[in-house]
């Protein structure tokens, strides 16, 4: 029995060399025992403890049609207003109890989402060298986790992480110019949806609908195209994306049918059941801080899949770096900080400790254990 990991036979020159570069780091997870006891082994000869999948949950499902149907009419009837109020109440309840929900009738054309998926698959099929070194999409390609010193800090994935300001720039696309129009359309649609949702969340806390609109800026908002290649290293601790909270106001996520997104609910990890009709929405750190912990930025992660690759697209709504993130009411739980300060702190923590600390850095008083 050998302890060496083998790359999947079907691999082409498009896959990033995750195993070659990080295989040794991941070996820490798999010490093959001396004696052949009851330990299971995967197809690659690696000893694995049984992986127990957590319970699969249905995220709260919210129908946005009260907001998206007939939206070009300026007059809203009383019945429609009541429907909107009920919908807004559901959004706020899910944002405080789960930090996550899914939306249907969201106003984003399904055909557009399918076109994007096709283009995304074609993009990731490009040779690794092209993705990494040809300046594609503003040089925004990332893979693996260069700063990881242990498996718990490592993400088995590749991604393009593109600021909205670069999406219309034809020079970013090289041979992938057909992606430009789809990216532009999707970014505009997701931006509209994200701004509508934060407007609803602000209004329910007694603030102006447009409270966040003026703070949000194209240069800091981004689209992230994720690909999680099938992963031969099967264990509890190989992540497609390590556990984290999002450092923004709000994220909109379109995922394929494979599954693998898990989130913390009442201190337990639960797996999100994929729904191809819906988009997933999650609250980021900045909305949690602004709402004084009413809305929750919840930890989530992507687990690897031994057999199937997985794709997702995430839109991150962020303010400009100078924006001051205050609180919606006093007494405030967090000190005021700018988004620039927050990003800087996250990067410093990741650099020095390998992990993000996030909001606890900005809490005014630590909660005392009773
Ligand atoms: C190492 C990290 C960077 C990251 C936060 C994290 O601890 C783990 C995930 C990273 C990620 C991935 C998606 C987004 O691009 C991002 C902004 C986020 O919210 O989580 C980044 C984080 C980051 O760079 O702040
Ligand atoms: O791919 C997913 O399902 C989640 C992606 C994510 O959490 C992120 O990009 O921040
Ligand atoms: Fe995330």
Automatic annotation (TrEMBL):
Keyword Iron recorded: yes
Reaction(s) catalysed (UniProt annotation): gibberellin A1 + 2-oxoglutarate + O2 = gibberellin A8 + succinate + CO2
Pfam families according to UniProt: 2OG-FeII_Oxy (PF03171), DIOX_N (PF14226)
EC number: 1.14.11.13
Boundaries of every Fe2OG dioxygenase domain copy: 217-319
EC class name: oxidoreductase
Annotated keywords: Dioxygenase, Iron, Metal-binding, Oxidoreductase
GO biological process, one term: gibberellin metabolic process
Gene Ontology molecular function, alphabetical: gibberellin 2-beta-dioxygenase activity; metal ion binding
SUPFAM superfamilies to which the protein is assigned, alphabetical: Clavaminate synthase-like
InterPro entries named in the record: DIOX_N, IPNS-like_FE2OG_OXY, IPNS-like_sf, Iron_ascorbate_oxido_reductase, Oxoglu/Fe-dep_dioxygenase_dom
Stretch forming the signal peptide: none
Highest taxon listed in the record's lineage: Eukaryota
Family: Belongs to the iron/ascorbate-dependent oxidoreductase family. GA2OX subfamily.
Protein name: gibberellin 2beta-dioxygenase
């Amino acid at each position: 029995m050998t302890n060496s990991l083998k790359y999947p036979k079907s691999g082409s020159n498009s896959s990033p060399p995750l195993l070659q570069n990080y295989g040794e780091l991941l070996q820490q997870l798999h010490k093959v025992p001396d004696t052949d006891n009851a330990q299971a082994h995967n197809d690659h000869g690696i000893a694995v403890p049984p992986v127990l999948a957590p319970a699969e949950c249905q995220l709260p499902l919210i129908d946005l049609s009260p907001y998206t149907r007939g939206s070009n009419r300026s007059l809203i009837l009383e019945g429609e207003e009541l429907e909107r109020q009920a919908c807004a109440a559901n959004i706020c309840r899910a944002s405080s109890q789960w930090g996550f929900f899914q939306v249907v009738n969201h106003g984003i054309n399904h055909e557009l989402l399918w076109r994007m998926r096709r283009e995304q698959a074609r993009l990731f099929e490009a040779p690794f060298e092209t993705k990494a070194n040809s300046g594609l999409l503003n040089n925004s390609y990332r893979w693996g986790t260069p700063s990881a010193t242990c498996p718990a800090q490592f993400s088995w994935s590749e991604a393009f992480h593109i600021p909205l300001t670069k999406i219309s720039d034809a020079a970013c696309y090289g041979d992938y110019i057909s992606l430009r129009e789809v990216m532009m359309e999707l970014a505009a649609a997701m931006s509209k949806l994200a701004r509508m949702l934060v407007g609803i969340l602000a209004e329910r806390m007694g603030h102006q609908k447009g409270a966040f609109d003026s703070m949000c800026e194209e240069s800091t908002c981004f689209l992230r195209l994720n690909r999680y290649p099938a992963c031969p290293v099967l264990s509890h601790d190989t992540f497609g994306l390590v556990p984290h909270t999002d450092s923004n106001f709000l994220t909109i996520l379109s995922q394929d049918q494979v599954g693998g997104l898990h989130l913390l609910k009442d201190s337990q990890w639960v797996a999100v059941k994929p729904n191809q009709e819906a988009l997933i929405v999650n609250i980021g750190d900045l909305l949690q801080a602004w709402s004084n912990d009413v809305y929750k930025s919840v930890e989530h992660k992507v687990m690897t899949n031994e057999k199937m690759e997985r794709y997702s697209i995430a839109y991150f709504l962020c303010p400009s770096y100078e924006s001051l993130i205050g609180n919606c009411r006093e007494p405030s739980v967090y000190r005021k900080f700018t988004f620039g300060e927050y990003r800087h702190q996250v990067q410093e923590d990741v650099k020095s400790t390998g992990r993000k600390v996030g909001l606890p850095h900005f809490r005014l008083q630590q909660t005392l254990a009773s």
